[in-house]
Design goal:
alpha/beta; 292 residues; two-stranded antiparallel sheet; 10 strands; single chain
Length: 292
């Protein structure tokens, strides 16, 4: 009986789900012994993050096959460093880190979120909410401003989608197992992302099957269950009232921890966060310019 080859998966929350999908795959388990790895960004944030990254790199380089997203800011776990450390017979395959902001033109990430009195609503913010707060707009007017904002007009949405796809393609240059080509073909017909860095189940299933094929294993049918927790518990709105360029139903509300919330209610939570963290507001004032 041939010895199973050891394999590990490195990367963010998408990589973590890929790892769990592979762990549930009988054909993979027959040929490979999966070495479990934590999400790399969580380990990097620890007080002993440097030693954690060194330990992860050592474990990865002890495996016969390394599956990794393109990593650049994680020291010894960077893709270039791992590739340089490979021995004869070892393989390293890079896979997609899906990131598509084409549905979400207002999403941004505010800097300076330190010394917080409480955690923000989500890890990302809306430029529209932030600009409304900075400009002193009443909370009762925010939802109407949001739903009718020019960012969500057809021309603006098409431009934003094209820019996002261009970034997607550049990030995937040289990647062994991409997903951006699929997103480019289907993003108008079906909602493929819940937020810019959190793909829908369809994209996760695609990534799983392309990884299996790269490992010379049979892909699963499209109807096969995902076998991991979906990212769908948090969903950013997608405004599609005109039904163009998108041909799927719109979502004019937030879904947070699987609970539906109105735009006004979520905006109020952001307003509260900004009220209690003026240093965050001050650090990001340029993001409010030209929005309203």
């Amino acid at each position: 009986m041939n010895k199973r080859k050891s394999i590990c998966v490195l990367g963010n929350c998408v990589a973590h789900r890929l790892q769990n999908m592979l762990a549930a795959n009988a054909a993979l388990r027959e040929h490979h012994a999966l070495v479990y790895m934590p999400m790399i960004h969580e380990r990097a944030r620890l007080p002993n993050g440097k030693s954690e990254l060194e330990r992860m790199a050592q474990i990865a380089l002890s495996c016969d096959c390394i599956l990794t997203q393109q990593l650049f800011n994680f020291g010894p776990c960077n893709t270039r460093e791992l590739r340089a450390g490979l021995s004869s017979g070892q393989t390293l395959l890079t896979f997609s880190a899906p990131d598509f902001g084409g549905y979400f033109p207002d999403v941004c990430r505010l800097s300076g979120k330190t010394r917080l009195r409480f955690n923000p609503v989500l890890d990302w913010d809306s430029r529209i909410f932030f600009a409304c707060f900075v400009k002193g707009v009443s909370i009762f007017e925010v939802e109407q401003i949001y739903l009718t904002h020019p960012m969500f007009g057809q021309k603006a949405m098409l431009t934003n989608a094209a820019t996002s796809l261009e970034r997607y393609a550049k990030r995937e240059q040289g990647v062994d197992i991409p997903t951006g080509d699929y997103v480019a073909r289907h993003y108008t017909a079906r909602r493929l992302f819940y937020s810019d860095m959190h793909p829908a189940d369809e994209v996760l299933a695609l990534l799983r099957n392309r990884v299996l094929e790269a490992l010379n294993l049979p892909p699963l049918p499209e109807s096969a269950p995902l076998e991991v927790e979906s990212f769908g518990f948090n969903r950013w709105p997608v405004i599609t009232r005109a039904q163009r360029p998108f041909r799927f139903p719109g979502q004019e509300y937030f879904l947070l921890a699987n609970v539906r919330h109105s735009i006004e209610d979520v905006a109020m939570s952001y307003y509260s966060f900004y009220d209690f963290h003026p240093h965050v507001v001050e650090a990001n004032l340029p993001l409010a310019e030209g929005v309203l």
